[in-house]
Amino acid sequence: MKCFNCGKNFDYEKYYGICPKCGSFNKTETAQEQHQRYHDAYDGGYQHLEHTYSSYEQQENTQETHSYGTFDDFTGSVYARPTEEKKKSGRGSTIFLIVSIVICVLISFGGTSMSVLYSKSQVKKLQMEVVEAPADWEEHVPGETFSFQGMELTVDEAWTLDADWETNPELLEGEKLVAVRLSGKSDGEWADRNQLSNAYIHCDGRFYWQIPAYEFREYTEQYGIRLFERYDLCGAEESEGCLVFCLDESAQEFTLCLEERVDENLIFIQTIHSIDIHLDGGQADEQNH
């Protein structure tokens, strides 16, 4: 046999294919036979392309690709490439899923925000309508029972309290104290918020606010009266007491005004109830009331 490397002739069987001159190992089988031998020994059941050696050699030299890649890639990339494509496809699906979720969240958040803003605008609109709308005016006479914020109220009578600067230091010169008796009924439930807002008196073009109960409470025993307080009908079905006002000493006639409000915080006025009251004979003996 002639050495493929140095060209020396030697006995292939004697030297087992190893050249005695250069030490190169020489194979007697062709490339196609070697390929078939490896194929028979290590075939794992994969479907194999039937190519001739010349086709492999042509692909190796030209690096032309076919549907399964180049010859160099046959033992590696030809099986790895579908995996890479699968990875790319998986990444694409994941990105698409994330983008879809983000879009859904943004749409949901935007819809909720618009709904909240719309609800707030509607509430604001209704509030402005209530504020801008003129309140109704209802006139009553003493002793008449009328409906007021879920309650039934009656203004009975009024009289002047015997007060002076010594017994009531808050009283100013030229003023007097007037008590107005009020009685009422309700369901007595706190949840219904049966409250009475502060009242006021209109007299000779002037307005006089009710003296707050917490300011006048210390004088009730002195004058022998009971105050009608704001929450009296929230926890009881019936109540009776007085509203106290400080007004001009010469006043004998005035109009008591009670404001009926539509919201639980007693802000928006719906109806003003007015009762014309006359103080018969000026000062009265409060002990008889």
List the helices and strands and how they pair.
Blueprint lengths: L30 H12 L10 H10 L14 H56 L3 E5 L4 E4 L2 E11 L13 E11 L14 E4 L2 E4 L3 H4 L3 H4 L14 E11 L4 E9 L7 E10 L11
Helices, by number, come to 5
Q: Sum up the overall morphology in one term.
A: rod-shaped
Give the helix proportion (percent range). 25-40%
Integer-rounded radius of gyration: 53 Å
Report mean pLDDT, rounded to a whole number.
Answer: 75
Number of β-strand runs: 9
CATH class of the largest domain: Mainly Beta
Terminal CA distance reads 147 Å
Label the structural class. Answer: alpha+beta
Uncertain ranges: 50-57, 62-81, 281-289
Protein model, in words:
The structure is a single chain. With about 290 residues, the chain is an alpha+beta fold. Helices cover about 30% and strands about 25% of the residues. The protein is built from five helices and nine strands, in the order αααββββββααβββ. It has helices at about 30-40, 55-60, 75-130, 215, 220-225, and strands at about 135-140, 145-150, 150-160, 175-185, 200-205, 205-210, 240-250, 255-260, 270-280. The longest helix is centred in the middle third of the chain and has 56 residues, at about 75-130.
